[in-house]
Design a protein that fits this description.
By secondary structure, the protein is mostly helical. 67% of the residues lie in helices and 0% in strands. The chain has a domain of 145 residues: Four Helix Bundle (Hemerythrin (Met), subunit A). The protein has eight helices and no strands.
Length: 224
């Protein structure tokens, strides 16, 4: 489904985001002759454009609404900082500092492919779950209920499953081994957050315990 309400406004925000991302990469990298960086920015542009078109604008407003109290504000802040740090490290590494920009081109291409697929998987999760917000809470004012269709019929936390691999894949796609440091710490925190949120929803959200019995795996079928 494509949402057309206020589409020019949403496209303007997308354009502003992409200009900011491209400008940030240019300032940090200090170069424009990095093919994989350019390819990564193009992938981000296309994927974020798809997001603009298919994500419910009401959910977008809810995700950005201030004052939401969640279960783990410190961990959520740390996750956001690690996500930002992954890209800052990568841009600086491949463009200016050359600490560890020795990732083989084939590995970079594989990283970009994995990043793209994980991003699309997350978009699928967001598109079917109108309660997909950053904070861990029961959204009773919005009629919060269990979502069990789409990727939620496969694993209980498909959004986290995507994010666990997206940051390391982005670090490899951009060509920085050092950026894998914050990326892997981010992945570890996301796995811990998955366990926390799962326990919270079993205890607090009606019918989630029954859903968890039916959909056994949290992030990866056959593993966990």
């Amino acid at each position: 489904m494509i949402y057309v309400a206020r589409l020019p406004h949403r496209l303007g925000r997308w354009l502003g985001f992409m200009v900011l991302l491209a400008a940030s990469s240019l300032v940090l990298a200090g170069r424009v002759d990095l093919p994989m960086l350019d390819a990564f920015l193009v992938a981000c542009a296309v994927l974020s454009l798809i997001a603009i078109l298919i994500i419910d604008p009401e959910l977008v407003r809810e995700r950005w609404r201030r004052g939401q109290a969640g279960e783990d504000p410190v961990r959520l802040t740390t996750i956001r900082l690690l996500f930002l740090s992954t890209f800052v490290f990568a841009f600086l590494d491949v463009g200016r500092l050359h600490w560890s920009n020795t990732v083989p081109p084939a590995v970079q291409l594989a990283g970009l492919a994995v990043f793209t697929l994980a991003f699309l998987w997350e978009l699928w999760a967001v598109s079917v779950n109108r309660f997909f917000v950053p904070v861990i809470r029961v959204q009773s004012e919005r009629g919060h209920h269990v979502i069990s269709n789409g990727p939620y019929a496969i694993v209980r936390h498909p959004g986290y499953a995507a994010m666990v691999v997206m940051a390391p894949a982005a670090a490899l796609a951009l060509g920085s081994w050092w950026a894998m440091g914050p990326a892997l710490m981010l992945s570890a925190l996301l796995v811990a957050r998955t366990a926390h949120e799962d326990r919270f929803l079993i205890a607090q959200l009606a019918d989630y315990a029954a859903y968890a019995r039916g959909v056994r795996w949290r992030l990866l079928r056959g593993v966990w």
